[in-house]
């Protein structure tokens, strides 16, 4: 019989800095990490997958799920999945940016919940950041909490899953500081929306990352153009 009291955490891991730090925080809290990564035809899919595997090796993750989703490519509607839409690089975009992938985190969390129930995990970890993010509606604290409630309503009575978002109220500079404090291998992470060899340094994600390192007084270990 499945034991939901095991300290297992399903960690949604993109290969980026935020989700990586979240996974290391769960590891430090004594959880056995189950790594979950999604290939959804994003521009930097190959690089993100490579980072995921390297991070899982460093974390000593024994159970990994790599899930291939063609839905988002068919859907389009985002600069991350539709190459006819340019990734903005001027840093002045207002409102929900064109890099927003419609309901991506909702879909990811639903799939993570199925894995958590199957594996007897008591937690799902996701590295959403509300305050200092790019304005994605599916990164909001209230949304994630409502998703937690829905997941527990839609699973077996004995299933009790918490969705942990330890970074949701942090600024990017605080994330950098916490990652350095926990010796997270930031050189294995990737944030760029555009490139896979050297980060562009000018997309929204690169700008947020570089600004976080600058405010934290640290050097970013990944290569930039």
UniProtKB/TrEMBL annotation:
The keyword Secreted does not apply. CDD domains: QueC-like. InterPro entries: QueC (IPR018317), Rossmann-like_a/b/a_fold (IPR014729). Pfam families: QueC (PF06508). It catalyses: 7-carboxy-7-carbaguanine + NH4(+) + 2 ATP = 7-cyano-7-carbaguanine + 2 AMP + 2 diphosphate + 2 H(+). Binds 1 zinc ion per subunit. It is an enzyme of class 6 (ligase). Zn(2+) binds at residues 192, 200, 203, 206. This is 7-cyano-7-deazaguanine synthase. It comes from Sulfurimonas lithotrophica. The gene is queC.
